[in-house]
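Quick one before lunch.
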Amino acid sequence: MRYLSDILEGVAFTELQGSADVEISAVVFDSRQVVPGCMFVAVKGTSVDGHDYIEQAIKDGAIAIICEELPAHTAGEVDFLMVADSAKALATLAANFYENPSSNLKLVGVTGTNGKTTIATLLYKLFIDMGYKCGLLSTVENQVNGRIIPSTHTTPDPVALNKLLSDMVDEGCDYCFMEVSSHAIAQHRIDGLSFSGGIFSNLTHDHLDYHKTFDSYLKAKKTFFDNLPKSAFALTNGDDKNGNVMLQNTSAHKKTYGLKSMADYKARIIENQFGGLLLNIDNEEVWFKLVGTFNAYNLLAVYAAALLLEQDRSKVLVSLSKLTGAEGRFEYIVGPNKVIGIVDYAHTPDAVQNVLSTIHDIRKGSEKVITVIGCGGDRDKTKRPVMAKVASEWSDKVILTSDNPRTEDPAQIIKDMEAGIDPAFKRHTVSIADRREAIKTACMFAQPGDIILLAGKGHEKYQEINGVKNHFDDMEELSGQFNEMK
Ligand SMILES: CC(=O)N[C@H]1[C@@H](OP(=O)(O)OP(=O)(O)OC[C@H]2O[C@@H](n3ccc(=O)[nH]c3=O)[C@H](O)[C@@H]2O)O[C@H](CO)[C@@H](O)[C@@H]1O[C@H](C)C(=O)N[C@@H](C)C(=O)N[C@H](CCC(=O)O)C(=O)O
Ligand SMILES: Nc1ncnc2c1ncn2[C@@H]1O[C@H](COP(=O)(O)OP(=O)(O)OP(=O)(O)O)[C@@H](O)[C@H]1O
Ligand SMILES: N[C@H](CCC[C@H](N)C(=O)O)C(=O)O
Ligand SMILES: [Mg+2]
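Model of the magnesium ion complex:
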Protein backbone atom coordinates (compact mmCIF):
# COMPACT_ATOMS: atom_id res chain seq x y z
CA MET A 1 0.00 0.00 0.00
CA ARG A 2 1.21 3.52 -0.80
CA TYR A 3 -0.10 6.91 0.31
CA LEU A 4 -1.45 9.31 -2.28
CA SER A 5 0.92 12.00 -0.97
CA ASP A 6 3.95 9.76 -1.79
CA ILE A 7 2.66 8.92 -5.24
CA LEU A 8 2.12 12.60 -6.05
CA GLU A 9 5.77 13.55 -5.60
CA GLY A 10 6.97 15.48 -8.65
CA VAL A 11 3.50 15.65 -10.22
CA ALA A 12 2.58 19.23 -11.08
CA PHE A 13 -1.11 19.29 -10.24
CA THR A 14 -3.12 22.47 -10.53
CA GLU A 15 -5.96 21.57 -8.20
CA LEU A 16 -6.60 18.99 -5.49
CA GLN A 17 -10.10 18.20 -4.22
CA GLY A 18 -9.96 15.92 -1.20
CA SER A 19 -7.16 14.68 1.02
CA ALA A 20 -3.74 13.39 0.02
CA ASP A 21 -3.75 11.26 3.15
CA VAL A 22 -5.33 8.14 1.68
CA GLU A 23 -3.89 4.75 0.82
CA ILE A 24 -3.82 3.77 -2.86
CA SER A 25 -4.00 0.11 -3.86
CA ALA A 26 -2.94 0.49 -7.52
CA VAL A 27 -2.40 3.00 -10.32
CA VAL A 28 -4.77 2.25 -13.20
CA PHE A 29 -5.40 4.01 -16.52
CA ASP A 30 -8.01 1.67 -17.97
CA SER A 31 -11.46 1.64 -16.34
CA ARG A 32 -11.74 -2.06 -17.21
CA GLN A 33 -8.88 -2.77 -14.82
CA VAL A 34 -10.08 -0.72 -11.87
CA VAL A 35 -9.72 -2.40 -8.47
CA PRO A 36 -11.10 -1.13 -5.14
CA GLY A 37 -8.99 1.65 -3.61
CA CYS A 38 -7.08 2.44 -6.79
CA MET A 39 -6.14 5.70 -8.45
CA PHE A 40 -7.66 6.10 -11.94
CA VAL A 41 -5.72 8.27 -14.38
CA ALA A 42 -7.91 9.57 -17.23
CA VAL A 43 -5.81 9.75 -20.41
CA LYS A 44 -6.91 11.16 -23.76
CA GLY A 45 -6.07 8.46 -26.30
CA THR A 46 -5.95 8.09 -30.04
CA SER A 47 -9.39 6.44 -30.22
CA VAL A 48 -11.26 7.38 -27.02
CA ASP A 49 -10.96 9.75 -24.07
CA GLY A 50 -10.29 8.18 -20.67
CA HIS A 51 -12.21 11.10 -19.08
CA ASP A 52 -15.41 9.46 -20.38
CA TYR A 53 -14.75 6.50 -18.06
CA ILE A 54 -14.27 8.39 -14.79
CA GLU A 55 -17.80 7.68 -13.60
CA GLN A 56 -17.40 3.96 -14.32
CA ALA A 57 -14.04 3.91 -12.54
CA ILE A 58 -15.59 5.47 -9.41
CA LYS A 59 -18.48 2.98 -9.49
CA ASP A 60 -15.94 0.15 -9.60
CA GLY A 61 -14.01 1.44 -6.59
CA ALA A 62 -11.46 4.07 -7.68
CA ILE A 63 -10.84 6.49 -4.80
CA ALA A 64 -8.58 9.05 -6.52
CA ILE A 65 -8.95 10.47 -10.02
CA ILE A 66 -6.22 12.22 -12.00
CA CYS A 67 -7.63 14.20 -14.91
CA GLU A 68 -7.11 17.18 -17.19
CA GLU A 69 -10.74 18.33 -16.90
CA LEU A 70 -13.01 17.89 -13.93
CA PRO A 71 -16.25 16.02 -14.71
CA ALA A 72 -19.56 17.90 -14.20
CA HIS A 73 -20.29 16.09 -10.88
CA THR A 74 -17.46 15.54 -8.45
CA ALA A 75 -19.33 15.00 -5.24
CA GLY A 76 -18.61 12.10 -2.87
CA GLU A 77 -15.64 10.51 -1.16
CA VAL A 78 -13.37 10.53 -4.17
CA ASP A 79 -10.22 12.71 -4.52
CA PHE A 80 -9.81 14.68 -7.74
CA LEU A 81 -6.50 16.02 -8.98
CA MET A 82 -6.16 18.20 -12.03
CA VAL A 83 -3.01 18.03 -14.16
CA ALA A 84 -2.06 19.67 -17.47
CA ASP A 85 -1.11 16.35 -19.12
CA SER A 86 -2.42 13.06 -17.70
CA ALA A 87 -0.14 10.84 -19.81
CA LYS A 88 2.91 12.65 -18.44
CA ALA A 89 1.55 12.50 -14.90
CA LEU A 90 0.82 8.76 -15.30
CA ALA A 91 4.50 7.99 -15.91
CA THR A 92 5.57 9.83 -12.73
CA LEU A 93 2.73 8.34 -10.69
CA ALA A 94 3.61 4.82 -11.85
CA ALA A 95 7.30 5.31 -11.10
CA ASN A 96 6.48 6.70 -7.64
CA PHE A 97 4.01 3.88 -6.90
CA TYR A 98 6.77 1.32 -7.51
CA GLU A 99 9.34 3.46 -5.61
CA ASN A 100 11.29 4.56 -8.67
CA PRO A 101 12.87 1.19 -9.49
CA SER A 102 14.87 2.58 -12.43
CA SER A 103 17.09 4.51 -10.01
CA ASN A 104 18.14 1.19 -8.44
CA LEU A 105 19.22 -0.34 -11.76
CA LYS A 106 21.62 0.55 -14.53
CA LEU A 107 19.00 1.12 -17.20
CA VAL A 108 20.01 1.36 -20.86
CA GLY A 109 17.49 2.30 -23.56
CA VAL A 110 17.84 1.46 -27.25
CA THR A 111 16.00 3.46 -29.88
CA GLY A 112 15.98 3.68 -33.70
CA THR A 113 13.92 2.26 -36.56
CA ASN A 114 15.66 -1.12 -36.88
CA GLY A 115 17.97 -3.06 -34.62
CA LYS A 116 16.48 -2.25 -31.20
CA THR A 117 15.49 -5.83 -30.35
CA THR A 118 18.79 -7.19 -31.62
CA ILE A 119 20.91 -4.70 -29.66
CA ALA A 120 18.89 -4.94 -26.42
CA THR A 121 18.78 -8.75 -26.57
CA LEU A 122 22.51 -9.05 -27.27
CA LEU A 123 23.27 -6.71 -24.36
CA TYR A 124 21.04 -8.80 -22.09
CA LYS A 125 22.65 -12.08 -23.19
CA LEU A 126 26.12 -10.57 -22.94
CA PHE A 127 25.72 -9.27 -19.39
CA ILE A 128 24.09 -12.53 -18.26
CA ASP A 129 27.03 -14.42 -19.79
CA MET A 130 29.43 -12.14 -17.91
CA GLY A 131 27.75 -13.12 -14.64
CA TYR A 132 25.32 -10.26 -13.94
CA LYS A 133 21.64 -10.46 -13.06
CA CYS A 134 19.71 -8.58 -15.71
CA GLY A 135 16.34 -7.62 -17.11
CA LEU A 136 15.21 -7.23 -20.71
CA LEU A 137 12.22 -5.36 -22.15
CA SER A 138 11.78 -6.15 -25.83
CA THR A 139 9.38 -6.78 -28.71
CA VAL A 140 10.00 -10.53 -28.54
CA GLU A 141 9.68 -10.95 -24.77
CA ASN A 142 10.44 -9.42 -21.41
CA GLN A 143 12.83 -11.18 -19.06
CA VAL A 144 13.51 -10.78 -15.37
CA ASN A 145 16.81 -12.55 -14.89
CA GLY A 146 15.82 -15.55 -17.00
CA ARG A 147 12.12 -15.53 -16.13
CA ILE A 148 10.14 -14.85 -19.31
CA ILE A 149 7.15 -12.53 -19.22
CA PRO A 150 5.34 -12.24 -22.58
CA SER A 151 5.43 -8.78 -24.07
CA THR A 152 2.46 -6.99 -25.60
CA HIS A 153 4.37 -3.93 -26.78
CA THR A 154 7.94 -3.07 -27.71
CA THR A 155 7.91 -0.64 -24.77
CA PRO A 156 5.26 -1.38 -22.11
CA ASP A 157 2.85 1.20 -20.68
CA PRO A 158 4.24 3.11 -17.65
CA VAL A 159 2.49 0.95 -15.05
CA ALA A 160 3.55 -2.39 -16.55
CA LEU A 161 7.01 -0.95 -17.22
CA ASN A 162 7.64 0.22 -13.66
CA LYS A 163 6.19 -3.02 -12.28
CA LEU A 164 8.66 -5.01 -14.41
CA LEU A 165 11.54 -2.78 -13.33
CA SER A 166 10.46 -3.20 -9.71
CA ASP A 167 10.45 -7.02 -10.13
CA MET A 168 13.98 -6.73 -11.54
CA VAL A 169 15.11 -4.76 -8.48
CA ASP A 170 13.43 -7.29 -6.14
CA GLU A 171 15.28 -10.11 -7.88
CA GLY A 172 18.61 -8.35 -7.46
CA CYS A 173 19.19 -7.33 -11.08
CA ASP A 174 22.09 -4.98 -11.77
CA TYR A 175 21.15 -3.98 -15.31
CA CYS A 176 18.10 -3.61 -17.49
CA PHE A 177 18.27 -3.29 -21.27
CA MET A 178 15.13 -1.99 -22.89
CA GLU A 179 13.80 -1.00 -26.28
CA VAL A 180 12.44 2.51 -26.49
CA SER A 181 9.91 2.84 -29.31
CA SER A 182 8.95 6.18 -30.82
CA HIS A 183 5.34 5.57 -29.71
CA ALA A 184 6.60 5.17 -26.14
CA ILE A 185 8.52 8.46 -26.29
CA ALA A 186 5.59 10.36 -27.81
CA GLN A 187 3.12 8.86 -25.32
CA HIS A 188 5.40 9.61 -22.30
CA ARG A 189 5.62 5.91 -21.37
CA ILE A 190 9.28 6.34 -20.32
CA ASP A 191 9.01 9.74 -18.60
CA GLY A 192 10.57 9.85 -15.16
CA LEU A 193 12.85 6.84 -15.70
CA SER A 194 16.44 7.22 -14.70
CA PHE A 195 18.63 6.06 -17.61
CA SER A 196 22.35 5.26 -17.41
CA GLY A 197 22.65 5.23 -21.17
CA GLY A 198 20.88 5.59 -24.49
CA ILE A 199 21.75 3.96 -27.82
CA PHE A 200 20.64 5.05 -31.29
CA SER A 201 20.71 2.51 -34.15
CA ASN A 202 19.35 4.29 -37.25
CA LEU A 203 16.37 6.23 -38.57
CA THR A 204 14.53 5.27 -41.75
CA HIS A 205 10.94 5.10 -42.98
CA ASP A 206 8.38 3.65 -40.54
CA HIS A 207 5.35 4.58 -38.43
CA LEU A 208 4.32 7.60 -40.51
CA ASP A 209 0.68 6.64 -39.84
CA TYR A 210 1.30 7.67 -36.23
CA HIS A 211 3.94 10.43 -36.46
CA LYS A 212 2.60 11.87 -39.77
CA THR A 213 5.95 13.29 -40.93
CA PHE A 214 9.50 11.97 -40.91
CA ASP A 215 10.51 15.13 -39.05
CA SER A 216 8.15 14.50 -36.16
CA TYR A 217 9.26 10.83 -36.06
CA LEU A 218 12.86 12.10 -35.81
CA LYS A 219 11.93 14.63 -33.11
CA ALA A 220 10.25 11.89 -31.04
CA LYS A 221 13.46 9.81 -31.13
CA LYS A 222 15.60 12.85 -30.35
CA THR A 223 13.53 13.72 -27.26
CA PHE A 224 14.85 10.53 -25.66
CA PHE A 225 18.44 11.82 -25.95
CA ASP A 226 17.46 15.40 -25.04
CA ASN A 227 16.13 14.08 -21.72
CA LEU A 228 19.07 11.86 -20.74
CA PRO A 229 20.86 13.00 -17.58
CA LYS A 230 24.44 14.30 -17.54
CA SER A 231 25.67 11.12 -15.88
CA ALA A 232 24.42 8.91 -18.74
CA PHE A 233 26.08 8.06 -22.03
CA ALA A 234 24.44 8.84 -25.39
CA LEU A 235 25.81 6.44 -27.98
CA THR A 236 24.97 7.05 -31.61
CA ASN A 237 25.57 5.49 -35.01
CA GLY A 238 27.88 8.01 -36.66
CA ASP A 239 27.26 6.50 -40.11
CA ASP A 240 23.53 7.20 -39.97
CA LYS A 241 22.44 10.48 -41.54
CA ASN A 242 20.62 11.43 -38.35
CA GLY A 243 23.01 9.86 -35.88
CA ASN A 244 24.58 13.12 -34.80
CA VAL A 245 21.27 15.00 -34.81
CA MET A 246 20.22 12.77 -31.92
CA LEU A 247 23.06 14.12 -29.78
CA GLN A 248 22.69 17.82 -30.62
CA ASN A 249 20.90 18.81 -27.44
CA THR A 250 21.79 16.10 -24.98
CA SER A 251 23.75 16.79 -21.83
CA ALA A 252 24.81 13.12 -21.60
CA HIS A 253 28.36 11.96 -22.61
CA LYS A 254 28.34 11.85 -26.39
CA LYS A 255 29.89 8.79 -28.03
CA THR A 256 29.77 7.43 -31.59
CA TYR A 257 30.26 4.09 -33.33
CA GLY A 258 30.62 3.39 -37.03
CA LEU A 259 32.04 1.33 -39.86
CA LYS A 260 32.68 4.23 -42.22
CA SER A 261 32.94 7.58 -40.44
CA MET A 262 35.33 8.77 -37.75
CA ALA A 263 33.96 7.34 -34.52
CA ASP A 264 34.89 6.56 -30.94
CA TYR A 265 34.24 2.86 -31.58
CA LYS A 266 35.23 1.50 -35.00
CA ALA A 267 34.90 -1.82 -36.79
CA ARG A 268 35.68 -3.18 -40.25
CA ILE A 269 34.08 -6.19 -41.93
CA ILE A 270 36.66 -8.75 -43.03
CA GLU A 271 34.34 -11.70 -43.81
CA ASN A 272 30.56 -11.78 -44.15
CA GLN A 273 29.09 -15.25 -44.75
CA PHE A 274 26.24 -17.54 -43.67
CA GLY A 275 28.50 -18.85 -40.92
CA GLY A 276 28.94 -15.38 -39.40
CA LEU A 277 30.92 -12.17 -39.46
CA LEU A 278 34.63 -11.67 -39.04
CA LEU A 279 35.14 -8.14 -37.75
CA ASN A 280 38.19 -6.11 -37.03
CA ILE A 281 36.87 -4.38 -33.95
CA ASP A 282 39.14 -1.82 -32.31
CA ASN A 283 42.10 -3.53 -34.05
CA GLU A 284 41.24 -7.05 -32.94
CA GLU A 285 39.88 -9.73 -35.32
CA VAL A 286 36.90 -11.61 -33.93
CA TRP A 287 34.32 -14.01 -35.42
CA PHE A 288 30.69 -13.44 -34.50
CA LYS A 289 27.70 -15.70 -35.13
CA LEU A 290 25.45 -12.99 -36.53
CA VAL A 291 25.26 -12.31 -40.26
CA GLY A 292 25.22 -9.17 -42.41
CA THR A 293 26.48 -5.60 -42.43
CA PHE A 294 23.51 -4.42 -40.36
CA ASN A 295 24.52 -6.87 -37.64
CA ALA A 296 28.07 -5.52 -37.72
CA TYR A 297 26.48 -2.22 -36.62
CA ASN A 298 24.41 -3.95 -33.95
CA LEU A 299 27.42 -5.84 -32.59
CA LEU A 300 29.53 -2.70 -32.54
CA ALA A 301 26.80 -0.80 -30.66
CA VAL A 302 26.66 -3.58 -28.07
CA TYR A 303 30.46 -3.68 -27.73
CA ALA A 304 30.64 0.11 -27.30
CA ALA A 305 27.81 0.17 -24.75
CA ALA A 306 29.46 -2.61 -22.73
CA LEU A 307 32.69 -0.63 -22.60
CA LEU A 308 30.81 2.51 -21.62
CA LEU A 309 29.33 0.43 -18.79
CA GLU A 310 32.95 -0.16 -17.73
CA GLN A 311 33.24 -3.81 -18.72
CA ASP A 312 36.52 -5.48 -19.57
CA ARG A 313 37.19 -5.30 -23.33
CA SER A 314 38.52 -8.81 -23.84
CA LYS A 315 35.81 -10.43 -21.68
CA VAL A 316 33.20 -8.57 -23.72
CA LEU A 317 34.62 -9.79 -27.02
CA VAL A 318 34.91 -13.40 -25.85
CA SER A 319 31.30 -13.45 -24.62
CA LEU A 320 29.90 -11.55 -27.56
CA SER A 321 31.52 -13.89 -30.06
CA LYS A 322 29.56 -16.82 -28.57
CA LEU A 323 26.13 -15.22 -28.82
CA THR A 324 23.32 -15.77 -31.28
CA GLY A 325 20.89 -12.95 -32.12
CA ALA A 326 17.23 -12.48 -31.22
CA GLU A 327 14.53 -14.95 -32.23
CA GLY A 328 13.20 -14.45 -35.77
CA ARG A 329 16.03 -12.16 -36.87
CA PHE A 330 17.90 -13.74 -39.82
CA GLU A 331 17.24 -17.25 -38.49
CA TYR A 332 17.82 -19.85 -41.14
CA ILE A 333 17.42 -23.58 -41.75
CA VAL A 334 18.68 -25.73 -44.58
CA GLY A 335 16.09 -27.90 -46.34
CA PRO A 336 16.24 -30.64 -48.96
CA ASN A 337 18.54 -29.96 -51.93
CA LYS A 338 20.39 -27.39 -49.83
CA VAL A 339 17.54 -24.90 -50.16
CA ILE A 340 18.08 -22.25 -47.47
CA GLY A 341 15.04 -20.77 -45.69
CA ILE A 342 15.47 -17.54 -43.74
CA VAL A 343 12.95 -16.08 -41.29
CA ASP A 344 13.49 -12.37 -40.68
CA TYR A 345 11.56 -9.50 -39.08
CA ALA A 346 12.29 -6.98 -41.86
CA HIS A 347 9.13 -4.87 -41.97
CA THR A 348 10.47 -1.52 -43.20
CA PRO A 349 11.91 -0.64 -46.63
CA ASP A 350 15.39 -0.22 -45.15
CA ALA A 351 15.31 -3.54 -43.30
CA VAL A 352 14.09 -5.37 -46.43
CA GLN A 353 16.89 -3.81 -48.44
CA ASN A 354 19.47 -4.66 -45.76
CA VAL A 355 18.46 -8.26 -45.42
CA LEU A 356 18.28 -8.81 -49.19
CA SER A 357 21.60 -7.10 -49.87
CA THR A 358 23.12 -9.27 -47.14
CA ILE A 359 21.77 -12.38 -48.87
CA HIS A 360 23.28 -11.17 -52.15
CA ASP A 361 26.63 -10.54 -50.47
CA ILE A 362 26.84 -13.96 -48.90
CA ARG A 363 25.30 -16.28 -51.50
CA LYS A 364 27.87 -18.40 -53.23
CA GLY A 365 26.92 -18.03 -56.88
CA SER A 366 23.83 -18.13 -59.03
CA GLU A 367 21.33 -19.28 -56.40
CA LYS A 368 17.96 -17.54 -56.81
CA VAL A 369 16.35 -15.50 -54.03
CA ILE A 370 12.61 -16.00 -53.48
CA THR A 371 11.02 -13.49 -51.11
CA VAL A 372 7.68 -13.90 -49.33
CA ILE A 373 6.52 -10.57 -47.96
CA GLY A 374 3.44 -8.71 -46.72
CA CYS A 375 2.67 -5.44 -44.93
CA GLY A 376 0.75 -4.91 -41.70
CA GLY A 377 -2.83 -3.68 -41.78
CA ASP A 378 -3.85 -0.58 -39.75
CA ARG A 379 -0.21 0.58 -39.91
CA ASP A 380 1.80 2.97 -42.09
CA LYS A 381 0.33 2.57 -45.60
CA THR A 382 3.05 4.64 -47.28
CA LYS A 383 5.69 1.99 -46.66
CA ARG A 384 3.75 -0.69 -48.60
CA PRO A 385 4.69 0.22 -52.21
CA VAL A 386 8.27 0.96 -51.16
CA MET A 387 8.74 -2.38 -49.39
CA ALA A 388 7.33 -4.21 -52.44
CA LYS A 389 9.54 -2.21 -54.80
CA VAL A 390 12.68 -3.01 -52.80
CA ALA A 391 11.71 -6.70 -52.51
CA SER A 392 11.04 -6.97 -56.26
CA GLU A 393 14.30 -5.28 -57.24
CA TRP A 394 16.44 -7.38 -54.91
CA SER A 395 14.81 -10.80 -55.47
CA ASP A 396 14.49 -13.19 -58.38
CA LYS A 397 10.92 -13.96 -57.41
CA VAL A 398 8.54 -12.23 -55.00
CA ILE A 399 5.36 -13.59 -53.47
CA LEU A 400 3.22 -10.80 -52.04
CA THR A 401 1.12 -12.06 -49.16
CA SER A 402 -0.47 -11.10 -45.82
CA ASP A 403 1.25 -9.93 -42.64
CA ASN A 404 -1.31 -9.19 -39.92
CA PRO A 405 -4.03 -7.59 -42.06
CA ARG A 406 -5.78 -6.64 -38.78
CA THR A 407 -9.05 -4.88 -39.75
CA GLU A 408 -8.04 -4.23 -43.39
CA ASP A 409 -8.86 -6.24 -46.51
CA PRO A 410 -5.75 -8.35 -47.32
CA ALA A 411 -6.39 -7.99 -51.06
CA GLN A 412 -6.31 -4.17 -50.74
CA ILE A 413 -3.02 -4.25 -48.80
CA ILE A 414 -1.53 -6.41 -51.57
CA LYS A 415 -2.83 -3.93 -54.17
CA ASP A 416 -1.11 -1.09 -52.28
CA MET A 417 2.09 -3.11 -52.44
CA GLU A 418 1.72 -4.00 -56.14
CA ALA A 419 1.47 -0.28 -56.95
CA GLY A 420 5.15 0.14 -56.05
CA ILE A 421 6.48 -2.53 -58.41
CA ASP A 422 8.08 -1.38 -61.64
CA PRO A 423 6.50 -3.09 -64.73
CA ALA A 424 9.88 -4.64 -65.53
CA PHE A 425 9.73 -6.62 -62.28
CA LYS A 426 6.01 -7.51 -62.40
CA ARG A 427 6.55 -10.82 -64.15
CA HIS A 428 8.66 -12.03 -61.24
CA THR A 429 5.84 -11.27 -58.82
CA VAL A 430 2.82 -13.29 -57.73
CA SER A 431 0.23 -12.43 -55.12
CA ILE A 432 -1.14 -15.09 -52.76
CA ALA A 433 -3.06 -13.64 -49.81
CA ASP A 434 -2.92 -16.82 -47.70
CA ARG A 435 0.55 -16.76 -46.10
CA ARG A 436 0.64 -20.55 -45.65
CA GLU A 437 -0.03 -21.03 -49.37
CA ALA A 438 2.53 -18.34 -50.20
CA ILE A 439 5.24 -20.13 -48.20
CA LYS A 440 4.28 -23.46 -49.79
CA THR A 441 4.52 -21.90 -53.26
CA ALA A 442 7.94 -20.42 -52.48
CA CYS A 443 9.14 -23.89 -51.49
CA MET A 444 7.72 -25.33 -54.72
CA PHE A 445 9.52 -22.70 -56.81
CA ALA A 446 12.86 -23.33 -55.10
CA GLN A 447 15.54 -25.12 -57.09
CA PRO A 448 18.55 -26.78 -55.40
CA GLY A 449 20.58 -24.23 -53.45
CA ASP A 450 18.01 -21.41 -53.76
CA ILE A 451 17.33 -19.06 -50.88
CA ILE A 452 13.85 -18.36 -49.53
CA LEU A 453 13.33 -15.24 -47.41
CA LEU A 454 10.19 -15.01 -45.26
CA ALA A 455 10.12 -11.35 -44.26
CA GLY A 456 8.14 -9.37 -41.72
CA LYS A 457 6.88 -11.74 -39.04
CA GLY A 458 10.10 -12.98 -37.43
CA HIS A 459 9.34 -14.29 -33.94
CA GLU A 460 5.58 -13.63 -34.16
CA LYS A 461 3.43 -16.66 -33.42
CA TYR A 462 0.21 -15.34 -34.92
CA GLN A 463 -1.51 -13.89 -37.94
CA GLU A 464 -3.94 -11.17 -36.86
CA ILE A 465 -7.09 -11.11 -38.98
CA ASN A 466 -10.12 -9.03 -38.00
CA GLY A 467 -8.96 -8.61 -34.42
CA VAL A 468 -8.36 -12.37 -33.97
CA LYS A 469 -4.83 -13.66 -33.53
CA ASN A 470 -4.66 -17.08 -35.22
CA HIS A 471 -1.65 -19.26 -34.49
CA PHE A 472 0.92 -18.83 -37.25
CA ASP A 473 4.67 -19.26 -37.11
CA ASP A 474 6.86 -18.69 -40.19
CA MET A 475 9.62 -21.02 -38.95
CA GLU A 476 7.10 -23.79 -38.18
CA GLU A 477 5.55 -23.41 -41.65
CA LEU A 478 8.93 -23.42 -43.33
CA SER A 479 10.24 -26.51 -41.56
CA GLY A 480 6.88 -28.26 -42.19
CA GLN A 481 7.25 -27.58 -45.91
CA PHE A 482 10.88 -28.67 -45.92
CA ASN A 483 9.85 -31.95 -44.24
CA GLU A 484 7.22 -32.56 -46.92
CA MET A 485 9.78 -31.91 -49.65
CA LYS A 486 12.05 -34.68 -48.32
C1 LIG B 1 -1.47 3.95 -31.16
C2 LIG B 1 -0.99 3.53 -29.83
O1 LIG B 1 0.19 3.43 -29.60
N1 LIG B 1 -1.94 3.24 -28.90
C3 LIG B 1 -1.59 2.90 -27.54
C4 LIG B 1 -2.38 3.82 -26.62
O2 LIG B 1 -3.72 3.54 -26.83
P1 LIG B 1 -4.76 4.67 -27.26
O3 LIG B 1 -4.16 6.02 -27.12
O4 LIG B 1 -5.31 4.29 -28.59
O5 LIG B 1 -5.90 4.42 -26.18
P2 LIG B 1 -7.44 4.57 -26.39
O6 LIG B 1 -8.02 3.26 -26.75
O7 LIG B 1 -7.74 5.76 -27.24
O8 LIG B 1 -7.90 4.88 -24.88
C5 LIG B 1 -7.58 6.09 -24.20
C6 LIG B 1 -7.60 5.85 -22.74
O9 LIG B 1 -8.90 5.42 -22.33
C7 LIG B 1 -8.80 4.29 -21.54
N2 LIG B 1 -10.03 3.48 -21.66
C8 LIG B 1 -10.43 2.98 -22.85
C9 LIG B 1 -11.57 2.20 -22.94
C10 LIG B 1 -12.30 1.89 -21.77
O10 LIG B 1 -13.31 1.18 -21.77
N3 LIG B 1 -11.86 2.43 -20.60
C11 LIG B 1 -10.74 3.20 -20.52
O11 LIG B 1 -10.39 3.63 -19.43
C12 LIG B 1 -7.56 3.56 -22.08
O12 LIG B 1 -6.99 2.66 -21.16
C13 LIG B 1 -6.64 4.73 -22.35
O13 LIG B 1 -5.93 5.09 -21.20
O14 LIG B 1 -2.07 3.50 -25.28
C14 LIG B 1 -2.36 2.14 -24.91
C15 LIG B 1 -1.98 1.96 -23.44
O15 LIG B 1 -0.63 2.26 -23.23
C16 LIG B 1 -1.56 1.18 -25.79
O16 LIG B 1 -1.90 -0.16 -25.48
C17 LIG B 1 -1.90 1.45 -27.24
O17 LIG B 1 -1.11 0.61 -28.03
C18 LIG B 1 -1.77 0.00 -29.16
C19 LIG B 1 -2.50 -1.27 -28.72
C20 LIG B 1 -0.74 -0.33 -30.23
O18 LIG B 1 -0.98 -1.17 -31.08
N4 LIG B 1 0.40 0.33 -30.22
C21 LIG B 1 1.48 0.09 -31.17
C22 LIG B 1 1.33 0.89 -32.45
C23 LIG B 1 2.78 0.48 -30.45
O19 LIG B 1 2.76 1.11 -29.40
N5 LIG B 1 3.89 0.04 -31.01
C24 LIG B 1 5.19 0.34 -30.45
C25 LIG B 1 6.28 -0.36 -31.24
C26 LIG B 1 6.45 -0.02 -32.63
C27 LIG B 1 7.78 -0.62 -33.08
O20 LIG B 1 8.03 -1.82 -32.82
O21 LIG B 1 8.59 0.10 -33.64
C28 LIG B 1 5.35 -0.31 -29.08
O22 LIG B 1 6.06 0.26 -28.24
O23 LIG B 1 4.86 -1.43 -28.92
N1 LIG C 1 21.05 -2.15 -37.44
C1 LIG C 1 20.15 -2.45 -38.36
N2 LIG C 1 20.00 -1.67 -39.46
C2 LIG C 1 19.08 -1.95 -40.39
N3 LIG C 1 18.28 -3.03 -40.38
C3 LIG C 1 18.38 -3.85 -39.31
C4 LIG C 1 19.31 -3.60 -38.25
N4 LIG C 1 19.19 -4.57 -37.34
C5 LIG C 1 18.21 -5.37 -37.76
N5 LIG C 1 17.72 -4.96 -38.96
C6 LIG C 1 16.62 -5.52 -39.76
O1 LIG C 1 15.42 -5.12 -39.10
C7 LIG C 1 14.68 -6.26 -38.62
C8 LIG C 1 14.17 -5.97 -37.24
O2 LIG C 1 15.28 -5.96 -36.35
P1 LIG C 1 15.02 -5.73 -34.80
O3 LIG C 1 13.89 -6.57 -34.39
O4 LIG C 1 16.31 -5.88 -34.09
O5 LIG C 1 14.58 -4.20 -34.86
P2 LIG C 1 13.57 -3.36 -33.95
O6 LIG C 1 14.07 -1.96 -34.05
O7 LIG C 1 13.48 -3.94 -32.62
O8 LIG C 1 12.17 -3.51 -34.69
P3 LIG C 1 10.71 -3.13 -34.03
O9 LIG C 1 10.59 -1.65 -34.19
O10 LIG C 1 9.70 -3.80 -34.84
O11 LIG C 1 10.69 -3.58 -32.62
C9 LIG C 1 15.66 -7.43 -38.68
O12 LIG C 1 14.98 -8.63 -38.87
C10 LIG C 1 16.55 -7.05 -39.85
O13 LIG C 1 15.93 -7.36 -41.06
N1 LIG D 1 6.29 -3.86 -34.00
C1 LIG D 1 6.15 -3.28 -35.31
C2 LIG D 1 6.35 -4.31 -36.36
C3 LIG D 1 5.23 -5.18 -36.84
C4 LIG D 1 5.65 -6.03 -38.00
C5 LIG D 1 4.62 -6.65 -38.85
N2 LIG D 1 4.54 -8.05 -38.57
C6 LIG D 1 3.24 -5.99 -38.73
O1 LIG D 1 2.37 -6.57 -38.10
O2 LIG D 1 3.08 -4.91 -39.31
C7 LIG D 1 4.88 -2.48 -35.46
O3 LIG D 1 4.03 -2.55 -34.59
O4 LIG D 1 4.80 -1.72 -36.41
MG1 LIG E 1 11.88 -4.43 -31.47
